Amino acid sequence: MLCIKNGMVVDGISDVPYKADILIDKGKVIDIRENIEDAAEEVIDAAGKWVLPGLVDAHCHLREPGFEYKEDISSGTRSAAAGGFTSVACMANTNPVVDNGAMVNYIKSMAMVKGVVKVYPIAAVTKGQQGQELTEMRELKEAGAVALSDDGKPIMNPHLMKLALQYAKGLDMLIISHCEDLSLVGDGLMNEGYMSTVLGLKGITRAAEEVMVARDIILAEVLDAPIHIAHVSTKGSVELIRQAKRRGVKVTCETAPHYFSATDAWVDGYDTNAKVNPPLRTDEDVAAIKQGLKDGTIDIIATDHAPHHRDDKEVEYSLAANGISGFETAFSLAYTHLVETGVLSIQELVHKMSKGPADILKIDAGTIEIGKPADIIVVDLHRTYTVDVSKFYSKGKNSPFHGCTLKGKVMHTIVDGKVIMKNEKIIV
Amino acid sequence: MMALNRKDLLGLRGMTRAELEEILSTAEDMKSILLSDTKKASYLQGKSVVMLFYENSTRTRFSFEFAAKYLGAHTASVAVSSSSVAKGESLIDTGKTLQSMGVDVIVLRHPMSGAPHLLAKHVSASVINAGDGINEHPTQALLDMFTIRQKKGTLEGVKVAIIGDILHSRVARSNVWGLTTMGAEVRVAGPTTLMPPDIEKMGAKVFYRVEEAIKGADVVMGLRLQRERQQKGLLPSLREYTHLFGITQERMRLAKADALIMHPGPVNRGVEISSDLVDGEHSVINEQVTNGVAIRMALLYLLTRRNRDAVH
Ligand SMILES: [Zn+2]
Ligand SMILES: [Zn+2]
User: Which end of chain A, N or C, is less packed with Cβ atoms under 10 Å?
Assistant: First the structure.
């Protein structure tokens, strides 16, 4: 038995945090109340700290198979655990692409063997993510894919997107759309605006994202099918989704921590660690993203953890890979930029990073409840620290937040009652 | 006075007026060496300067080569085809290799913005940006500024109109940074599809009618218009461009009577500027080339000065 004592608990269900001990046995929560005196073999003292449901990431890239030099399931899930994530949904843009049942099973079994958190594969919408033919969605669903996405690439053909939404609806599967009109992106490299002018880097108009967000909303509306918009980054996208939700369109969406923590000014000096897709935007967009999180337009926060090798980043800006290694800074960025600034309460933040994504993906996670799997984290909200990428468990050290001072740190991570991280150290 | 105390010259953005002043005044001395019979100085004796060019530019490469040779340096040129950039040896590795061979200054021309900044971070040799992508071409802007100052006596309050494809022009960007720092008024004009967003925040005045930009100007600078802009749909035709923005005798009547005609070259005669103006009495296009060598001599001298002083 394991007991987490004296922490402030946000259980993901109650309206207010409360002080309680949590008793765990055989991987499940068996008691939640003050002053549990049971003689648990292991005790975690959470006095002065907060006890939260393990975080759930609806969007990450674990890179295995095919790009193990960037990340693999072993390093990626350790990185997730270090960031407080106990369940992660990984995108299908591996090599080969996760576009058939065998690949879904492969990811799941590799995660079983060497992963330390729960891994839920997201499978491709089109075969090989080529945007030509639909995948066998029934087979993917039966194998355990929690959603479908060609993330990394948009589905450019609107007719194909319509068919995908239509077909997936019949199977009760969710499509996650990476919205980026490639003809509008052209050879653009960063957000189009003052900074792209100053740096002499070709700009990417915000319309490249918004045109496709609008298209997908219209398709979902016409078909009355659900759709989830990945990594919302612009003010315009937030507004499109806000209006769609008012009309009753079944649209949900996520943003990533970098879209409320950084702007295109961070690209200055040609910092390839700030190169990400969609690109970092402006202060105005950051404000709109925060507003969208506050008023519920943006349902959840997902990391879009996209680890890369040094060789993919230490090159000319034009040649550098897109992506930020995001697991290990996500909670602290969210706490620092959203809770400390009064945008969200701690309960709201917890919802957007645990129960919210779990509900969208229909996975059993995101709460601390008696009888449920004990996926729990302990965080120190008073703790201020400086991000040091060399300490990342991820192979990907590509973070523009290196050197930033953040508040709120994940201290312990427990998955199915097993302590994975203790005092900021992964112990498995 | 030693205002310029940098390892590299990556761009004019962020350079102080004192630094620019020092480069321009040093170039005056260099121009006299250049115009002397012997054309010889020994400031760079024992130094090695390599031209690392990932883009073809015979005129810029020769200009740097002559500048280095007149100052007594060893020179070498490396031409890398841009198609091999993506798959070939990395820029950083190439830079480190050159450095191991004892190179003191790397003059880099590269099709990607920010490449000199990347190289400069990884080598201890000085890096001079000889044009990076659509970002900057600082030595071109410096020679433009030098030319204007020689002709007009000052840069303060001088009205410079830059006409053409501002979006893709590293010459325009460097000139906006440099000229505004020196107190000149910079006007930019071109088709809306070839104007970068928010360039007015860099200190330039934006015009979409060429006549308004030229009106009362002391200097009118044309930029080379690439034919591929039409293929990419940014322009309906070169003919329409010339009609709307071509620099002509008639339009030049709106400028000051003694206005200079400039162009970084090579010129598309009859497209961005009419042939008679290129060869006319107000054109300083050939003098720009001479001044380019003087500016590059000045920079090579100034950037290697720190090491030289440390050694002696
Ligand atoms: Zn994506
Ligand atoms: Zn992604």
Answer: C
